[in-house]
Structures are given as C-alpha cells and as structure tokens.
Amino acid sequence: MNAATLLPQAERVIEVRNVTKTYGSGATAFQALKGVDFPVNAGEFVMLSGPSGSGKTTLLSILGCVLTATSGHVQLMGEDISKAKEGDLPRLRRSYIGFVFQAHNLIASLTAQENVGLLLEMRGSSQSKARAEAGRLLDDVGLGDKLMSKPGDLSGGQRQRVAIARALAGSPPIILADEPTAALDAQNGLKVTETLRALAKEHGHTVVVVTHDNRIFHLADRIVHIEDGLIQEHP
Ligand SMILES: Nc1ncnc2c1ncn2[C@@H]1O[C@H](COP(=O)(O)OP(=O)(O)OP(=O)(O)O)[C@@H](O)[C@H]1O
Ligand SMILES: [Mg+2]
User: Fold this and answer.
1) Whose CA is nearest to atom 30 of ligand 1?
2) Where in the sequence is the domain holding 116, given as residue range(s)?
C-alpha cells in the first residue's frame, strides 16, 4: 500500500476507481481504459506517462469532464461525477478544472493580458476587473513583465505559461495538462514544468500532467505509468 492510499478521504481531490472507457460500439468498439484506479491528493504534482495510444488523453479527458467514463467511479472534490450526463459536464468543468493543452491555443491578435482576461470576461467579470486579475495571474507564472506582449512576440515556453495563467482563471482546484512541453526545447520545457509544479506547491492546486518527456520526470511528486489501458503498478 503506498502513501496515497493511506491519506484520509478529505484530502482526495481526484478519486478514480475501476474506470473503463469504450469508444464506439459493436464491431468497431475499442476499450481504451480497462479498469483504471487513479487517486490524487490535494496539492500533489503527478505525471501520467505511457506509450502512444495507452489511454493517457482518454483518462485526462474523463478527469477534465470532457468525456464520461463507460463504467466505474469518478469523484472530483468529493462530488461523484460518475453519473453525470453530457449536459452536466460544462458546469463541472467550470467548477473544478483548468486545462492546458499541447498547443497553447492563444489568440494571436490579443496581448497576453487580453488572452487571459477574455476568459474571465466570458465568465462575467467586468473588463477592468478581468484585466487586473489577468495581470495577477500572469505575474504568478513569471510573466509580470509581458502583459502587453502578443503570442508572436513570446517564446514557446512563455506562450505555454500564458496558457497556464489562462487555465488558472476562476481558480479551479484541479489543473490538467496534456503534453505541455512536447513542442518546447529542454530549457523552456523545464521552466513550464517548474511553473506547473509551483501551482501545486505554492498555490495548493492539484496538478496532473500527461507527458512522455523524461527531461521533466524528476520534478514530479509521483509518476504513474499507463500501458494498454491499465495502470502499471510496478513499472
Ligand atoms: N474518439 C475515439 N474513437 C475511437 N478510438 C479512440 C478515440 N480516441 C482515442 N481512441 C483510441 O483509444 C486509445 C487511447 O487513446 P488516447 O488518445 O487516450 O492515447 P494517448 O495515450 O493519449 O496517446 P498519445 O501519446 O499518442 O497522445 C488509442 O488506441 C486510440 O486510437
Ligand atoms: Mg494523448
């Protein structure tokens, strides 16, 4: 039994038990997850690793309330989402999740501050409040001096940190990132990973990063390996 299983339930921000996911049906059905357990505690910085096609994005999408599991138990912040319908997912996502994608998906014509602020405005903040909050979030990821820069004027790592600041809009307790360093050189990859780690260690977020990138493994609290839709207990 590892330390994670000994911690009290209240600390358990993510609880995934015996989750399966089948894409399609009938002759074309494909079982991408075959009974996965994935508990994560508050403030943990966990990396999820495994070969291409092993089910990493599928698991992250279920945690991120983008997809529903086919069977099994999923709980976020104590709320059971196993029975959630497609229509419930946007509310759950807004309440609990900040997503960082491999491609940063920033809007080229907007400054860093506008890119982050736009999401806050869409969620109902006034423009001035959104701008102030965006400035604070960009400062948190080490970009306090780049508020007025457009994505084209930033390095790949800086762009990815703007995307992290955007994921933080609305203070979601859980931050999920799918291969956030895949397109970056070693130095930028480390900086982005250090930024994600700081969200967990300094700001109390719970952070799960999908990655193949062995240059960043040393920064994880815990590395979970998945292969062929199953968590490998002893990699
Ligand atoms: N929408 C879908 N319909 C059918 N099969 C899918 C779908 N999405 C993923 N799969 C299959 O499920 C399996 C797991 O896919 P997933 O995207 O989770 O893998 P991954 O570990 O993230 O891979 P990669 O490292 O290449 O991103 C793969 O075999 C994939 O082909
Ligand atoms: Mg993937």
Assistant:
1) 53
2) 10-232
